[in-house]
Amino acid sequence: MKEGKLFDFINIFILTLVGLVTLFPLYYVFVVSFTDPAEYITKQGFVLFPEKWSLLSYKYILSTASYIRATGVSTFLATVGTLLSLMVTATLAYGLSRKRLKIRKPLMLMVLFTMLFSPGIIPHYILVRDLHLINNIWSLILPVLSSGWYVFLMKSFFDSIPPALEEAAMVDGYNDIGIFFRIILPLSLPAMAAFGLFYAVGYWNTYFNAVLYINDSTKWPLQILLQNILIESSTSSQGAGAAELMNEQQLPAQTLKMAAVVVATTPILLIYPLLQKHFAKGVMLGSVKE
């Protein structure tokens, strides 16, 4: 009995320690972002709990044209890109899940091929260039519109839907499109919420493709602007976009960076609780009764 309590105590202690170590960087970013600039300079950049809280960094960032513009680009990517990706993934997965589709096997092999073999960066860039999408926001959406892995996962989900539902809908006069939008999609809300969250996080965190395809600073997504803030705050030279966040006011670059990180991550953190309830729901709950 005592050995069991000792094990529980050690287990709780280790997990608590790991949790504190994991949460400390988030806490430090949050605290520094709200620290008064004068106090931050006085304490030489190390603040565990500020004596004076300040919103100056947030007020400056949120009123800066470059940051607002980059946030708008990222918001467009996360909303429009997620909706288009869900539509393409769901329709393709639904088609592959129906055995009556004549070209089902060749399509599945094509999707599987994209998972096993990647053409690489150069062919991707040439494709985007030949489509005249360089410096176009759509270059951050169309090349990554769907994922073979997500298609197969959603196909497995559609495979679990009883064919009796579709047969009953056909008897009522629905065609395949009507069945998909009126029967399949309403039953797929938990899966759509999960995959939508994955797509939204991916689009919101777009960085590498933006580095490759976007040269115009006015079309930078938020992550590119943040990276430039991190780089240019430690150098003497200031570039377009990021310089606007640091030169016009006498604010420490570190507090601006931390505030920018908080503002960039907050939307995704708020989306998780809103969609969490859909993850645990029974997919077929109440759809078929025997």
Automatic annotation (TrEMBL):
<dbReference type="InterPro" id="IPR000515">
    <property type="entry name" value="MetI-like"/>
</dbReference>
<dbReference type="GO" id="GO:0005886">
    <property type="term" value="C:plasma membrane"/>
</dbReference>
<keyword id="KW-1133">Transmembrane helix</keyword>
<feature type="transmembrane region" description="Helical">
    <location>
        <begin position="179"/>
        <end position="201"/>
    </location>
</feature>
<keyword id="KW-1003">Cell membrane</keyword>
<protein>
    <submittedName>
        <fullName>ABC transporter permease protein YtcP</fullName>
    </submittedName>
</protein>
<dbReference type="GO" id="GO:0055085">
    <property type="term" value="P:transmembrane transport"/>
</dbReference>
<feature type="transmembrane region" description="Helical">
    <location>
        <begin position="256"/>
        <end position="275"/>
    </location>
</feature>
<feature type="transmembrane region" description="Helical">
    <location>
        <begin position="76"/>
        <end position="95"/>
    </location>
</feature>
<comment type="similarity">
    <text>Belongs to the binding-protein-dependent transport system permease family.</text>
</comment>
<feature type="transmembrane region" description="Helical">
    <location>
        <begin position="12"/>
        <end position="30"/>
    </location>
</feature>
<feature type="transmembrane region" description="Helical">
    <location>
        <begin position="107"/>
        <end position="126"/>
    </location>
</feature>
<feature type="domain" description="ABC transmembrane type-1">
    <location>
        <begin position="71"/>
        <end position="275"/>
    </location>
</feature>
<keyword id="KW-0472">Membrane</keyword>
<dbReference type="Pfam" id="PF00528">
    <property type="entry name" value="BPD_transp_1"/>
</dbReference>
<feature type="transmembrane region" description="Helical">
    <location>
        <begin position="138"/>
        <end position="158"/>
    </location>
</feature>
<keyword id="KW-0813">Transport</keyword>
<keyword id="KW-0812">Transmembrane</keyword>
<dbReference type="InterPro" id="IPR035906">
    <property type="entry name" value="MetI-like_sf"/>
</dbReference>
